Amino acid sequence: MNISQISDICTGCGSCVAVCPSAAIRMQPDEHGFLHPAVDAAACTDCGLCACKCPVSTPPQVSAHTEILTGYANDEALLPASSSGAIFPVLASEIIRRGGIVFGAAFDQNFDVAHTAAESIAELAALCSSKYVQSSIPAGIYAQVKAALTAGRWVYFSGMPCQVAGLKNYLGREYETLITQDTLPQCTIPYGLEKLPLRAGNAERQ
Model pTM? Predict the structure, then answer.
């Protein structure tokens, strides 16, 4: 069995793309803009690894830790540039200070939202503030997280709950230097929807 047989319940985390040893899977938007895996049948070896690592078919173990804390940044200069109390840049800055690496959603040059890495305070700015649309996970991101953890570095990964679950399934074990942040949305907005006003504006000018 491969991931195409359960793609109707896909959350778009991209873990299947990351684990495929044959590079036979790519994520592509459906008619509503939601990302789903497309499998190249000629390249697929039917190893089943993609389905095994899918967090929908194999949910990761839930932590027994139930303590809930709330907070916000004391630095008032951070608050106007943030959407939820500026906790993310505070924690991310500490990870970078420790020589770690931070992963989060950022707009690219095409105004698409995709996960990327930041290893300096200057690079961190692009990851701050809510994007209000689900990001795509480039194929190499999960592998980059694993490589950093294997090297003993601190890693801070912020993403949608399904993306965090996808990362944990990809890793397959706990790491003491991994911090994950589930960003809880009120709803999931399809990938690419953020560019509709730009497309409409361009059409009007043409």
Answer: 0.85
Q: Return phi, psi of residue 106, to 5°.
A: -145, 155
Contacts of residue 98, Cβ cutoff 8 Å, sequence gap at least 6: 154
d(CA 106, CA 86): 16
Phi, psi of 78, rounded to the nearest 5 degrees: -80, -30
Assigned token pair, 167: 């990362």
Contact criterion met (CB below 8 Å) for 189 and 132: yes
Q: Parallel, antiparallel, or unpaired: how do β-strands 113-118 and 101-107 relate?
A: antiparallel
181 touches 158 (CB < 8 A): yes
- Cα–Cα distance, 145 to 4 (Å, whole number): 26
Q: What percent of the chain is modeled with pLDDT above 90?
A: 50
